[in-house]
Write a structure and sequence with these properties.
Layout lengths: L1 E5 L3 H12 L3 E5 L3 H8 L10 H10 L3 E4 L2 H7 L2 E4 L14 H16 L4 E5 L7 H11 L9 E5 L9 H6 L4 E5 L2 H10 L7 E4 L1 H32 L3 H9 L20 H14 L5 H24 L7 E5 L15 H10 L3 E5 L4 H7 L5 E2 L3 H5 L4 E4 L21 E4 L14 E4 L3
Parallel strand pairs: 1-2, 1-4, 2-3, 4-5, 5-6, 7-8, 9-10, 9-12, 10-11, 12-13, 13-14
Antiparallel strand pairs: 6-7
Helix pairs in contact: 1-3, 4-5, 5-6, 9-11, 9-12, 12-13
Bound molecules: uridine-5'-diphosphate-glucuronic acid.
Amino acid sequence: MKISIIGTGYVGLVSGVGFASKGHDVTCIDIVDEKVDKINRAEPPIYEEGLEELLKDVVSNEKLKATTDTGKAVKETELTFICVGTPSKQDGSVDLSGVEKAVQDMVQPLKEKDEYHVFCVKSTVVPGTTEEKVLPILEKSGKIVGEDFGLGMNPEFLREGIALEDFLNPDRIVLGGWDENTLKVLSEAYGRFQVPKLKTDIKTAEMIKYTSNALLATKISFANEISRICESIGIDVYEVMDGVGLDHRLKRDFLNAGAGFGGSCFPKDVKALVNYAKEKDQETKLLNSVLAINEEQPVHIINRLEHISEGVKGKKVAFLGLAFKGGTDDVRETRALPMIKRLLELGADVIGYDPEASENFDELLPGKIRYTDSREEALEDADICIIQNDWNEFKNLKPKDFEPMRGKIIVDSRRLLNRENFTDDLIYIGVGV
Ligand code: UGA
């Protein structure tokens, strides 16, 4: 099948490479020449495990190519996925300008095309967007939905860091379609995926994406709230959640207390859902609390440290992990930001280290902290060490790794370390214990 994909960010490029690896002929479209050139040279413009190898395969087999020419790509394919970014506006609502611009570019080719074509939104958009915002633009072509072209919505559930694996082996595929013909084309695109496929109308597909992300975020804030109770009574929230998670109705996943959820999706999507509900005159008491707990959690961790360490003023803090999670250089909504801001307010001297994200983080807080090129250097003479994300090199650090430190306090805000290994020489402060 011939597929075009507009937008070569995480979702677009990973989907493109994924579909090409399943045998389809894929054309990726982007407005940035540099990205297109890179993809055609089989160099991924983003880092994702396994992406470079698979991109090399599909480019050399001529299963995937990239272009800036939307018109040609739409005309030469049967199905176009729209995968451009949908960032938040100041008020939390979704900024659709990227999607609208991309769809606008498809009007002329649709007008000139004689064959049936399906347009499918993969970007995360609030219910109603595809039919109320995308469709009217496509209809400017004079063509008729359901006759000349199909319209669909197919949410993506992949996680950054393991995006390719998630795309190729999803738990389920949700296909929202205008009509049976649209659903037939979308089903064909996913023909080689042997997983449950749920066919719905377009609005339901849009809502499934928001509801999934909102429920995952809710699990995290729930775990963080319970973790504070556990801390106050000296028991371990991880053990509590292990016990809870054995009930098949209450899966253990995403019940890990930590510094809260960051990244480009959960904070943005929960805010967008809250905002959308407000437009529909609906209250969102639970989701408001989910967001509030998430804002408090990083500050709570630093306040607890301030209390246990009898003040952080003038102390050297080695801050390990600046990206929102390990395995990425993405610092969007990283919990490192509110934690470091609070440390600076309290007068600490912060030295940041991240294998990939220091440069990006410095743009969030220009010149406010120093950075090192290695974990060892950051720990040298530090009074306190804080671990914020879960890069492999932070997992299973042993007490001897902290020997170069001057002080004794280790804050494990992702619960990566085995606290049993820490004796009285080092003070271990784990979230939720
Ligand atoms: C998330 C979803 O997991 C994907 O299914 C979805 O497709 C994606 O958003 C999206 O909408 O595009 P992602 O943002 O890449 O994926 O990251 P996650 O691995 O889900 O982590 C999100 C945040 O939650 C991270 O800050 C992580 O540290 C935190 N987290 C996760 C916890 O604090 N506790 C947990 O138990 C799990």
